[in-house]
Each structure stands twice: as structure tokens, then as C-alpha cells.
Amino acid sequence: MLDLLLASAELAIRVDVLVYTAGGLLLGMCVGAIPGLTTTAAMAILLPLSFFVEPIIGIPFLIGVYKGGIYGGSISAILISTPGTGASVATTFDGPHLVRQGKGRKALDMALYASVVGDFTSDCITIILIGPIAALALLLGPPELVPIILIALLIVIMVSSSSISRALAMALIGLLLASVGRDPIEFSSRLTFGLEQLEQGIPMLPMLVGLFAVPEIIRMIGASKLNRLVHRTVVDTGSRLTLKEFLNCARTIARSTMIGTVLGMIPGIGQPVAAFTGYAAAKRASKDPDSFGKGALEGIAAAEASNNAVNGPTLVPMLTLGIPGDKITALLMGAFIAHGLRPGPELFEEHGTLIMAMLLSMLFANILLLGVAKLFIPIISRLVKLSPSILAPMVLVLAFMGAYLYRSDPNDLYFLVAFGFLGIITKRFDYDVTPLVLGFIVAEPLEYAIGQTLSLAGPDLGSYLLGQRPVALTLFIILLTLLLWLILRKYIARSSTRLRI
Asked: 3-state SS of the chain: helix, strand, coil percent to 5?
């Protein structure tokens, strides 16, 4: 184990790895600070850049974009009461009030320190836990993977931002899209309609860029001018955060870090839920709960520690089981697959040193974030004043360039446009695309697992599960219980609606 850590650390502290990680942090912060652009969109647009370098450079670069984007959303949330990302909504409750009180610098400092502490701590926990979880995952076979994948998909459907029926429809569409092309078992063509462009299946990168980036860019183009709270750079005004003020929030940061870490390991939860949960817990535990929402540093600490603590743990289900925890890890999983690193139980056996180096790079990314943010916050704080009409065309060009450069295949641009339209339509009618993407990603391993399970079981699946696979049987029972609970909850909701009418 010590040899693995030393070899991994040697890779993680390479100068080029650290430089790319710092570059990813800076780009992520810039995007996160710009209202209208999301971390998800940034990841989708910058994803192709990681394919031109080796995995130990490209993946830490994207991790830097991820971490920088989640933190960067707090800058606009504090300065202009407009969260750069959904993860920073709770930060708007107290940040703008502190700006009006002349404490803008304190608010920005608290957001940075709480983010770094929460993220660093949760990354340490992730590194400690991911080894045993990966070892446990190796004991699972195809019969166990089938219900695990379906349970994860069901959880994402249940916590989707759209209704359950809509989320279920999107997941089914994702599974259907993944079946286009060659059958991975028999290698026969299916759902290609005679089109040569569909023989190799639907490419993941243009789909991800189209679904996540294009709708955000279109929304930016049509966005109205933001209502600015300030007309000068408030980051240069007010005193810095003191050590005493930070220590007064230490307990809050620790509590929120634990909340974010636990929620981050559950697929589909994400940073916004963690931020609101951490904020609510801090308010309940505070000696002065009335100060929350009126300019409490403790409120900023709670929200930022919680949402950033989610970052590392979301990689646990992705790396060990091949199940992305949220939209961003779905994009990150796409990068792993493009680099020839298929997340799942065998990943640590085949590429243990490389994966551990990537995990260690998360720790170094937090340390770099502290320095990069200190240097560039005065500059980044001015980006919030840039007009979306200027930024949107530039970002759109980058999205098309990235999708094309990945394979240099003109057909990928058609896929990008098609999924861009799909993304716009789903956003317009309030359909969450996360279940679609997750369904698309897990379709292949799910199909393999089902085929292998049926082959192992023979003609009597029930006797096989009951006699030889008790763990798989238990997981199937849990899956059926969740399904029944979901149906029952929907039935009760409809019945109560009729009674009210």
C-alpha cells in the first residue's frame, strides 16, 4: 500500500500535472463566477481539451475545472446576489447583505476558506474509503451489478428536478439511445435505419456537449441584463477575515463537511441539496439563528463547506461501480471512458497507481485553489459585469470546436446540433436530462451484466438467485421495494389531490 501511495504521489506532483490542474481551477472559477454559465456547461465545453494529453494530466485538469467551478459560483452569489452555479444558491442568503455592510472581502474569504477545508477533508475521507469499497465491489458479480445499477438509476429518477414520470421517460430514452449501433454481445446492427453514421453508435462527447452546454449558451443569449448590486469592485474594500472569525465558524464547517460528504456518496443528490441541508443544520444549531439571511458569516461557511464537500465523494460510485453520482461526474466518466479507463470494479486492479494519483491530485487541487483564488479573485470579480451577449457566441464556438476536434469527424457536429435541440426542448418543458445521460452511460454494463446473469442462471433464474446468489436476491428485493414505494407514493399523491378537489 505504501509503495502504491509513493508511486501515485510521484505522478500527482509532476509539474505538468500541477500546472494543468491550476489552469483547470482558474478556468472553472471564471466560468463559475459568470451568471448564466454553469460548471456542467464548462465541463462539457472543456472536456475535449483533456483528450490531447495523457490521462494523468487530462483528468486532474477536469477535476480542477470541477472544483474551481463549484467554488467560483460563490463569487457572483456574494457580489451581485446571482449564483454562478446552482450549488451557490444558499450563499446568496447572506453574501449580498455582507457586501452592503462593507464586509464583501470577509464574505469572499469565508467562502474560500470554508470551500477549501470542506473539499480537502471530504477528499481525504474519499481516498480512505474508496479502496475498501473498490475491494468489496470486486466481490460482486454480474447478478449483483444488475440490481445495483437499476437502484442507482431509480434513485436518480426519484431525486430528479422534474417529475418522476418525466424522469423515468428520460431514463428510458437514454437506454434506447445507447442501444443504437452494434449489439455488444452479438455485434449485429440495431436501430441504425440503414444509416452508416449510426453503425458505431451515438458518440458520447457530442451528446454531452449538446445536452448540457448548448441550452445554457442559448439561455445566455436571451438573458436580460442583470440587476447589479454594486458598480465597483467590492473585493478591494473592507477588511479581511480574521482568524477568530474563522474559528468561530469551525464547528459549522465541520458539520457541513460531514453532511456534504455523506450526501455526495449518494447518486443524484448533488451540491444544491447539500448546501441547503448544511445551511439549515447550521441555522438550527446556531446561538443566533435570527442573524441567518441578514449577513451571517456562519451562513456562508455552512453553504460553501457543504456544497464543496460533495465534490470528492461523488467519484466513489463512479469509480467503484461505474455509476456517476451527478451531471458533472457523468461528464467526468465520459472523459475516463475516452481515455480508455472504464470505471468499475476492475479499474483499481488494472490501473491502481494511475487512479490513486488522480485521487491525490484532488488534494493538491484544493491547496492550489487557495493560491489561485487569492491571486485572481480581484480579476474574476470583474467578470460578473461582462454581458452574456459577448460571452455566449465565444462559448458556442468553443463548444463546436471541442466536439469536432475530439475525433475530427464532421458527423459529430450533426450529433451536437441534434442533441443541442433536444437539450433546448427538454429544458423548455422542464425535463431533466440527467436520467437520460445516466441511462445512456449505464446501458452497456447493464446489458452485459443481464446477459451474463442469464447465462450463469440457465433456465431457472429464481433457483439460481435463491441458492447461489443471496446478495443479488437481497438487492433485487430492495429494488422491488423501492419500486413499490414509488408507485404507492404516486398513488397516495393522486388520491389526496382528488380528495382536495
From this structure: 75, 0, 25
pLDDT tens figures, 52-65 = 889 999 999 999 99
DSSP state of 183: -
**pLDDT, tens only, 156-205:** 777 666 778 888 888 899 989 988 887 766 667 787 877 777 878 888 77
User: 486 with 479: CB under 8 angstroms?
Assistant: no
Count CA within 13 A, CB hemisphere, residue 313: 27
Query: Of all helices (H) and strands (E), which one includes residue 429?
Result: none
Helix (H, G, I), strand (E, B) or coil at 53: coil
Residue type, 482: L
Output the DSSP codes for 357-371: HHHHHHHHHHHHHHH
> Global pTM?
0.78
Crossing angle for the helix pair 411-428 and 388-407, nearest 10 degrees? 140
How far, rounded to the nearest angstrom, does the alpha carbon of residue 233 sit from its chain's CA centroid?
Answer: 31
Of 148, 91, 119, 141, the closest CA to residue 368 belongs to 119
Instruction: Identify which of 21, 120, 33, 40 has the alpha carbon closest to the alpha carbon of residue 71.
Output: 33
Sign of CA dihedral 308, 309, 314, 320: positive
* Position 459 confidence tier, pLDDT thresholds 50, 70, 90: confident
| Polymer length in residues for the chain | 501
